[in-house]
Q: What sequence folds into this?
């Protein structure tokens, strides 16, 4: 004799989300997200900063162009002269607030990196990915805003890192 009772298969998909490695590629960011927004737009009290450098190129005819770039490294300053006499001088300019992308790309071991990933996952992840993240963007930010010294912040961060960065 056999039992006629059978378990039904689950009708809901498991929760999931992408890890920082996925978001190191800008093409994997949700289309409704500005990767160049300041980290403080998600992590309000973040102190992540990057170095901003000034590049001045002077041609032999004395025309100059000035541009700026950002770096994670503090030793990008340099000076060089090309064979045609063009001089390039790179100098330190200032420290600036990191962007959302820089938090993920340049600070992979920071709490902010994982908070940004949770926020991106809450946005729905890469367009068309169909991930099932259990929190909204406002809930992710609310957990962050509890502060590092709170149980809620740490429990949420550990949950995101341990269980929601699984794709």
A:
């Amino acid at each position: 004799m056999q039992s006629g009772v059978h378990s039904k298969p689950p009708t809901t998909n498991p929760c999931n989300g992408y890890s920082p490695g996925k978001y190191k590629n800008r093409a994997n960011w949700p289309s409704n997200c500005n990767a160049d927004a300041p980290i403080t737009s998600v992590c309000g009290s973040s102190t992540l900063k990057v170095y901003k450098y000034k590049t001045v190129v002077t041609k032999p005819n004395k025309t100059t162009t000035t541009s700026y770039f950002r770096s994670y490294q503090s030793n990008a300053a340099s000076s060089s002269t090309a064979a045609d006499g063009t001089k390039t001088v790179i100098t330190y300019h200032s420290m600036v607030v990191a962007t959302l992308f820089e938090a993920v790309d340049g600070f992979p071991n920071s709490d902010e990196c994982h908070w940004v990933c949770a926020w991106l996952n809450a946005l729905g992840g890469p367009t068309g990915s169909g991930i099932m993240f259990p929190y909204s963007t406002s809930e992710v930010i609310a957990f962050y805003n509890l502060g590092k010294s709170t149980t809620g912040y740490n429990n949420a961060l550990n949950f995101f890192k341990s269980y929601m960065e699984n794709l």
Q: What stands out?
A: The beta strands are 49-58, 64-71, 78-81, 87-97.
